[in-house]
C-alpha cells in the first residue's frame, strides 16, 4: 500500500505500532542539537502512571507481511517502580541537551527528573495540584528551568540545578493547561489557561507583557511604507506592487528568517531599550485592566504550538477552535480552520512540520492535517480506535507519531521512493529504491 509524501499534504496508513498499558498522553522524540542518536528515542507518558522509552529505528518484529513494524519499549517506569508516579503521566519530555535526563509530570502532583541510565529520580518537585504540562526551552543557554502548568492558577518554574522553585508567575484566573517556550528567546514563556487566556511572560520581569485577545485581529500584514517609496521612473511599478499587496492582504504572510540564518526576534521579545513607540508608553489603568481580562478562546486553552520560525503561535481551545496568532503584533490572523471537534476536558499536543506548512491536530479518533496559512484540511488520518491525545512530528525522518486512548502509538510515514527504469528493449519497469546501489552511470 503506497503512502503519499507529507509535502503533498496527504499521508497514508501507519507502518509502525508501539503498545502501552494505558492511554498515551504525551510524546517527545530525542531530537537534540548535540545528541549523536538524533531522533532515535521516543519518550511517552501514559494514563496508567508509566513512562516508556522506545528505539524507533530498531523494530522488535514485523507483522502483516513485513508492512507493520512492532516496537517494544527499551525500559519503562511505572507504579511498580519505587519512585514511579501513582497517577496518570500527563507530560514526558527529554532534557533539551541530551537523553541523559528526562522529565515527567503527573496527576499525583509531582514533577520528577529522571536519570535515564539508572532510571532513578534525581530531583523531585512537589506541586500544589495536578500537573498538566511541563516544558523546557530548546534555546536556553543560561538556565535549566522547567515550566509547569497545573490546576493551580500560578505557573511555577523549577530549577534542575538547585532543586527549587525560582519563579512563580501569577496572572491566570484558573488552572494552566499548557505551557510553551519561545523558539526565539530563552526568556519568553507562553501559557494557556482554563480561563481562556494566552499570556506571554518575560521571566526576568514581574507580570506578563502580553495577553492575546481574539477580537484584536489583522488581515495579513502590509509592508512598511518607507521601505517601498517610489523612486524615479518606478511610480507605475510601485503602484502595481501596492495593488498586489492589497490583493494578498487576506492571507497571513509567512515571514522568513534573517539572511545570516538566525531566527528573527519579534519586537515583543525585545527589551524596552530596543523597542520604540507605543509599546513603551504607559497606558491608562482601566485600559490595562481591560487588556488583562482578554481571552483567546471561549473556553480553556488546551494546546499551544509555536511555528518553527518563531513568528506565529497556533492555539487550540475547548471551544473546538484552532487559531493562528501573529506573535510580533499579538493579533489574531483570522485564518478560518475548517470545523473540528477537539478534546474539551484535557490538554492536547499539537505538531507541525519543519517548514510550518502543516499543523497536525488530534480531533477525537482522527488526526487532521491543516494547511497553516489557508486553514483547509489537507488530510484526515484514521487508524486509532479511541480519542487521540498527542502528536509529534519528526523533521529528520518526516514521520508523525500519534498517541491515543487505545493505548497505541502509531507512526505515519511518507512512501518509499519508486524509480522507473527503461530496459534495453524500451520497456518501463518499477524498481524499489531498496534495490538500487549508490553508483550511477
Write a concise keyword list for the protein shown above.
2 helices; mainly beta; six-stranded mixed β-sheet; 32 strands
User: Poorly predicted ranges (pLDDT <50, ≥5 residues)?
Assistant: 1-15, 33-37, 221-250, 257-262, 271-287, 418-424, 431-441
Oligomer: single chain
**Portion in strands:** 35-45%
What Rg do the Cα atoms give?
23 Å
List the strand order in the largest sheet. Answer: 5-6-1-30-29-28
Secondary structure: helix percent: under 10%
Count of runs of 4 or more consecutive helical residues: 2
What's the story with the biggest beta sheet? 6 strands, mixed
Describe the protein in words.
By secondary structure, this protein is mainly beta. It is 5% helix and 38% strand. It has helices at residues 235-247, 285-292, and strands spanning 14-19, 24-29, 41-46, 51-55, 61-63, 68-71, 75-77, 89-94, 101-106, 110-115, 120-126, 131-136, 145-150, 155-159, 164-169, 176-181, 188-193, 198-202, 208-211, 301-306, 312-317, 322-326, 331-332, 351-352, 358-363, 366-371, 377-382, 388-394, 399-404, 408-412, 418-422, 428-432. A 6-stranded mixed sheet has the order 5-6-1-30-29-28, with no helix packed on it. Strand 14 and strand 15 form a beta hairpin. The protein is globular, with a radius of gyration of 23 Å. It holds the Pfam family WD40. InterPro entries: Rad28/ERCC8/Ckn1/ATCSA-1, WD40/YVTN_repeat-like_dom_sf, WD40_PAC1, WD40_repeat_CS, WD40_repeat_dom_sf, WD40_rpt. It comes from Macleaya cordata (Five-seeded plume-poppy).
Amino acid at each position: 500500500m503506497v503512502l503519499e509524501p507529507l509535502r503533498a499534504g496527504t499521508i497514508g496508513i501507519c507502518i509502525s505500532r508501539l503498545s502501552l498499558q494505558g492511554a498515551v498522553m504525551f510524546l517527545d522524540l530525542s531530537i537534540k542539537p548535540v545528541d549523536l542518536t538524533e531522533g532515535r528515542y521516543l519518550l511517552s507518558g501514559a494514563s496508567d502512571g508509566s513512562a516508556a522509552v522506545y528505539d524507533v529505528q530498531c523494530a522488535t518484529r514485523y507483522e502483516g507481511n513485513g508492512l507493520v513494524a512492532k516496537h517494544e519499549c527499551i525500559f519503562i517506569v511505572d507504579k511498580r517502580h519505587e519512585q514511579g508516579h501513582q497517577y496518570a503521566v500527563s507530560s514526558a519530555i527529554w532534557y533539551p541537551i541530551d537523553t541523559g535526563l528526562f522529565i515527567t509530570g503527573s496527576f499525583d502532583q509531582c514533577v520528577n527528573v529522571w536519570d535515564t541510565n539508572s532510571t532513578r529520580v534525581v530531583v523531585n518537585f512537589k506541586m500544589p495540584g495536578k500537573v498538566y504540562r511541563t516544558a523546557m526551552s530548546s534555546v536556553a543557554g543560561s538556565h535549566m528551568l522547567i515550566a509547569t502548568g497545573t490546576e493551580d492558577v500560578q505557573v511555577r518554574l523549577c530549577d534542575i540545578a538547585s532543586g527549587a522553585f525560582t519563579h512563580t508567575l501569577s496572572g491566570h484566573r484558573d488552572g494552566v493547561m499548557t505551557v510553551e517556550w519561545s523558539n526565539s528567546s530563552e526568556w519568553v514563556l507562553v501559557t494557556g489557561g482554563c480561563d481562556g487566556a494566552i499570556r506571554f511572560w518575560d521571566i526576568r520581569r514581574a507580570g506578563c507583557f502580553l495577553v492575546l485577545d481574539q477580537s484584536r485581529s489583522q488581515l495579513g500584514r502590509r509592508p512598511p511604507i518607507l521601505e517601498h517609496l517610489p523612486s524615479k521612473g518606478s511610480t507605475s511599478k510601485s503602484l502595481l506592487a501596492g495593488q498586489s499587496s492589497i490583493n494578498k492582504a487576506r492571507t497571513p504572510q509567512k515571514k522568513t528568517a534573517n539572511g545570516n540564518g538566525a531566527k528573527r526576534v519579534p519586537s515583543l521579545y525585545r527589551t524596552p531599550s530596543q523597542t520604540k513607540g507605543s509599546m513603551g508608553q504607559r497606558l491608562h489603568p482601566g485600559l490595562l485592566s481591560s487588556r488583562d481580562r482578554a481571552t483567546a478562546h471561549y473556553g480553556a486553552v488546551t494546546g499551544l504550538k509555536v511555528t518553527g520560525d518563531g513568528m506565529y503561535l497556533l492555539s487550540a481551545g475547548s471551544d473546538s477552535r484552532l487559531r493562528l496568532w501573529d506573535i510580533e503584533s499579538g493579533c489574531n490572523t483570522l485564518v478560518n480552520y475548517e470545523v473540528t471537534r477537539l478534546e474539551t476536558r484535557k490538554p492536547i499536543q499539537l505538531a507541525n512540520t519543519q517548514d510550518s506548512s502543516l499543523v497536525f491536530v488530534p480531533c477525537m479518533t482522527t488526526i487532521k492535517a491543516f494547511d497553516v496559512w489557508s486553514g483547509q484540511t489537507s488530510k484526515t488520518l484514521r487508524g486509532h480506535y479511541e480519542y487521540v491525545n498527542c502528536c509529534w512530528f519528526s523533521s529528520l525522518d518526516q514521520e508523525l507519531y500519534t498517541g491515543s486512548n487505545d493505548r497505541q502509538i502509531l507512526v505515519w510515514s511518507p512512501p518509499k521512493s519508486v524509480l522507473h527504469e527503461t530496459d534495453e528493449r524500451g520497456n518501463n519497469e518499477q524498481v524499489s529504491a531498496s534495490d538500487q546501489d549508490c553508483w550511477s552511470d
